[in-house]
Amino acid sequence: MKLELGFIEIKDIQFSNECKVENGTLFVDAEAVKTFVYEDDDVKACVKSASFDIARPGESVRITPVKDVIEPRVKVEGPGGEFPGVIAKVDTVGSGRTHVLRGMAIVTAGKIVGFQEGIIDMTGPGAEYTPFSKLLNLVMVCEPVEGVHQHEYEHAVRIAGLRAATFVGELGRSVTPDEVKSFETYGIKEGIEKFPELPRVAYVHMLQSQGLLHDTYVYGVDAKRSLTTILYPTETMDGAIISGNCVSACDKNTTYHHQNNPVVADLFEQHGKTLNYVCNIITNENVYLADKQRSSDWSAKLCRLLDLDGVIVSQEGFGNPDTDLIMNTKKIEQMGVKTTIITDEYAGQDGKSQSLADADPLADAVVTGGNANEVIVLPPMEKVIGTLDYVDKIAGGHAGSLRPDGSIEAELQVITGATNEMGFNRLSAR
Amino acid sequence: MVKEIERAGIPVVHMCTVTPISMTVGANRIVPTIAIPHPLGNPALPAEEEYALRRKLVSRALEALTTEVQDQTIFEL
Lengths: 430, 77
Fold this sequence. Notes:
Chain A is built from 10 helices and 24 strands. By secondary structure, chain A is an alpha/beta fold. Chain B is α/β, with parallel strands linked by helices. Helix content of chain B is about 40%, strand content about 15%. Chains A and B meet through helix 10 of A and helix 2 of B.
């Protein structure tokens, strides 16, 4: 399956009374976006208000509580549309051509959905920890209708964000991209014939699916209701997987992470050179032990069936998903397939506690996204998009996290994407 | 907590859903439970059936507590 991505570089966003992309500037009429967002009945029923703001890299701006980050894209050739099974009708995506508004994102924020939304600082020390400080963010601040249930509101804000991204992405349909890149993986036999000498490598992509606002959707299917299965990597790049997550901000995978998965990008970079990138294996992180056993059995079985030599496993969230991670790793290794895992750590504020809740000697190649318990002080920002009302309550915060001067002392957990377990991070240690 | 209480000489049954973690941390008597968000019940069941399930879980735990063990043991329901 072959997908062409046409990247349109966005260098500025301006509110305007028309909507277009011209010479790298996105002109957007907030009212028009809002009208499109509100065409959905669930949004209408649950979201009292939606207002828009722009946050640019380097500005003294704090966005919080952040729910999701989404890159606007549009399908210009080939089957399907953006976010199949959720916004577009169900159809297999991952082939043809898609235009990407690169350098910007839609951010959904506002009154809290769960208790695990995050913070994006556009400047200062916090900005170093989140990749989204380097993007031009069109922020949609939502407010719930009074009395609406949390899970209904989560659904509505999720859809609102995806609809806003779809509307903005559409503006790139007839723009000539600044760069076009193509990505292709092959059928099993075809791949072996093309690269007979190269090791066969796949990506085991673990999806957060614990329920109670910790969910991921694949072609619109709640991942907790699916068995481990296979995707072409380009399907992920084309919006097949979306986030419905209110898990800790530092290591939840936003929709933007799924669209721009760095493991997929790096495997494609090596594809046909040092390895044969076979496919993505998606598996869930459920709350029943039998589910954990079943899903990890299937991960291992698929690795063997595909005659893989090695896999990269990425996790989402922490705590009991550490067991899914270790079960996957152990069983895949026992099939004779090498593994490297990407995770993060909850090693306490002093870094001295056990990093993962579960462990096994077979998990002997580990990449860490960092210690989420590390304490950071974020200086006050001149402007807040959203509200500071929940800073003390979000995971990683504590009573008194928000200081009278507007600065925040909290664990890295509070920063969106800070210890991302796909490795979508900016900082490293020696 | 399980380990510290046992260190003080009081036997403990760890009732938990993710038994591999219980094994990793070193609990000796383990009773598997229903699900992480609701370990000791199942909201999907009618009230009488759930009561029976809860009773069964606690009975199994009491049984485990009074059973001599040599190694880490999982007491399946």
